[in-house]
Design a protein that fits this description.
Distance between the termini: 62 Å
Oligomer: single chain
Helix content: 40-55%
Strand content: 15-25%
Number of strands: 16
Length: 528
Amino acid sequence: MLETLDAAAVHRWCDGGLEALRAHQREIDELNVYPVPDGDTGTNLVLTLTAAQEAVESALHEEPRTPLGRLMGRMARGALLGARGNSGVIVSQILRGMADSFASAVAVRGGELARALRQATDAAYAAVARPVEGTVLSVVAAAAEAAGRIKSDDLVTVARVAARAAAEALDRTPQQLPVLARAGVVDAGGRGLCVLLDALVDTVEGAAFEPAPLPVVEVAPAVSHQHGDGGGCEGYGYEVQYLLEATAEAVERLRVVLAGLGDSLVVVGTGDGTWNVHVHVAEIGPAIEAGVEAGRPYKINVTPLEEKRPGADSRGAVVVAAGDGLTALFEAEGAVVVDRNPSTAEMLAAVHACGASTVVLLPNDANTQAVAVSAAREAEATGVHVSVVPTRSPVQALAALAVRDHSRPFADDVIAMAEAAGACRYGEVCTAQRDALTVAGQCRAGDLLGLVDGEVHVIGSDLADVSHRLLDRMLGGGGELVTLVLGADASPDLEEDLRGHVHRTWPFIELQCYAGGQPRYHLLAGVE
């Protein structure tokens, strides 16, 4: 058993925590499904910790005797850049709070671990605009309170007490959040944190751990320091971006090559052998050739930076969306589009791809908003002013972009976009992933659900019928403009059917209909 936590132990904890999250990934994902198909908390935490683990490995490769505080700081920084979803961002802040506490510690025994957990709790709550009890926040707070209450300086004792208190707090989360009680589950993010705290206990108890080979998320070091006065463009004429199929070892070599060719380097992976590569270079050929050498690059995009160099008040927009149709719609509005569930680093790369001095982020999902806020903070450090408009659906983003006016001050433009998004009620039709009790009654796995502003209002089995009832529910409260976005699996006659229903039932409504191609949601609807 360990008397003090050192850098080697942090390394083992990071490896063990990632391995444990992978073992529980599907379980945590399934906790997150209520009852709509948003079950990705386990996956998000695995990707977040994968980035943290890669940052730790990189730090030890550069400096084998990296001090504890510095190594923990690199772990937290890697988690932040790789963070996906609210839970990933909050866990990255928990790690940052611990790192800040360890930075000034002479030795980390039980008392210092308790103080670190208290600082981690403060950092986690500070990262959330409206903290909600019954979530991972309650779990980390309980762990910190219990660790501090026993007044012990024994490292193993404090770690055990913290992990036990976290597990007890997790069991209480359904009592704090009715949505969890209705689904009969505990909080997914809190369960992930318990897995990490259990891994910490295993580490300090000296339990043996042999890390299995894992895919990694590669984040170029010092991303936030690579952009100079020219937004990272100075001395380089082209922005090169592509997706890449390659092994982690090949990507490690690629990163070194690209770092020597240019700047603004960001390389992020999804954990399945696919990587997103972004770099500013003087010559296009070598950057693409390096990708060919590493694996199979595709969706290659080259943009002259002279056309994208930020001016005194140049503006850009980054939108999170999935589906070819939606992507084309947003690109037609001049936005840079990021695929759903992005990491902080991916959103940061998109901000810089705008080549603008001011950028607005439209996350289109409550679970992506925390990532957008983190990316905005990182971008501010590089001299780009970024504001987040808290859109919950692509239809709200379309409404927001429609009122953009570059002739007015940026702050006023952001306010106008936020007001337009807020005035757009959004609806969705999707398939229930589990049996659950909703405000509209009991649903079964496989039922079609119609949601208004995120709450289930309609349950049925026929897509056209559920869509009709959803639109009637939304338009019953008033409205002048309806925007419909059809999903990837929409039948060819669905658009004609919906147009006919709206024109017959609501004849004075203006209707816009698009083929969005989005997965998971058969229909997106906006009413303004």
